[in-house]
Structures are given as C-alpha cells and as structure tokens.
Amino acid sequence: MNMQRFEESLNYYDLAIQKNPENADYYNGKAITLCKMDQFEVTLKYFDQAIKYNPQISEYYNNKAITLYKMNKFEKALEQYNLAISKNTENSYYYYCKAITLHKMNRLEEALQHHDRAFELNPEVPDYFNTKAIILSRLNKLNEALEYHDIAIQKNPENSDYHNCKGRKYIWMISQLILQKK
Fold it and tell me: Domain for residue 92, yes or no?
C-alpha cells in the first residue's frame, strides 16, 4: 500500500472521529494505520484514546503491545499483553505475541510456557509450532525442536521458511557432531 493510501485512510478516520469522537474503533483504526506508517509515538496516543473510550476491548491492548514491541520497549509491551490477556484469556494470539516478546528478551522458559498456552487454545496455527522450535533450539533441545518444525511443516507444507528453519537445525547439529569428534 502506498503512502497516499495511508494518508487517505487517516483523513477518513479523522472525519469519523469528528462525527463520533467517542467511538473507540475509530481511534484503533487510525492507530493501526499510523503504525503501518512507522509513526509509533503518535500510534500509542491513538491506542490510548481507544482504550479510554472502551477499556474492555482486549484487542486495543494487544495492538498497543505490538507497537511497543516494534519500538523495542519490551517491558512495556509485556504489560500491555498482560492487560489484553486479562480481558480475554481465550485468545491464543495474545499468548503467542507475549511469547515472542519474552523470546526477544531471552526469557526462553517463560516464552515456552506462553507458546504452550497458545497451542492449547488453537493447535492449528503452524507459526506457533515453528516459533517454539526456534526457542527450543536456543535452549539446545534440538531433537524436540525438529519435532515442532515437523508439525509446522505438516500443517503448512508450502511455507518455505519452515523447511529452511528445519534445514538449518540439521546443519547446526552436523557441525556440532564434527566439533565433538575433534
């Protein structure tokens, strides 16, 4: 999408907000558009407005957390993920996003716990399995990581990234065996 379309979108959100300034969805939509334009500081203000007008919508907190993640403000992102989860404990994506943030913070065991909760809620999302495999690899649990890569590939055999990740695990395992023999 080109920048002109984003600007048009923002203009329509502004008109909608002028006509109905207490509709939280309009602020959320504008924030999402601004986030896609990498205007993160302004994005946060609009998510705050959405939350102000409807603090029960978990999606607003999750969207704000994603923005904070993109800004490398991981602790603040975790706070927002926790709020999103407290509003909706059944949304697997929130646990997945929190797991990715914990992974980025090198809190790998916690990340695995949140991945497991995401699986419980929605075992059909291949990205959950692939990302868990990556974390398991970082914990040097390579055989278990390969199993999770296999599940991701079974769920979506057309995704080349899953095959690539699994191939890289094999190369790494082979290089470790060679080093052990020396």
Answer: no
CA-to-CA dists, residue 99 to 32, 58, 116, angstroms: 22, 17, 9
Alpha carbon distance 18, 29 (integer Å)? 14
Q: Which domain holds residue 11?
A: 1-55
CATH of the domain at 6: 1.25.40.10
Contact criterion met (CB below 8 Å) for 61 and 81: yes
In a domain, 182, yes or no: no
The per-residue pLDDT for range 138-168, each reduced to its tens digit, is 998 988 999 999 999 999 999 998 888 888 7
Q: Which tokens belong to 52?
A: 């102000």
Per the listing, tokens 């065991």 go with 109
Per-position DSSP letters for 127-159, written without gaps between them:
HHHHHHHHHHHHTT-HHHHHHHHHHHHHH-TT-
Would you say 165 and 133 are in contact if contact means Cβ atoms under 8 Å apart? Answer: yes
Q: Does residue 90 belong to any structural domain of this protein?
A: no
The model's pTM? 0.89
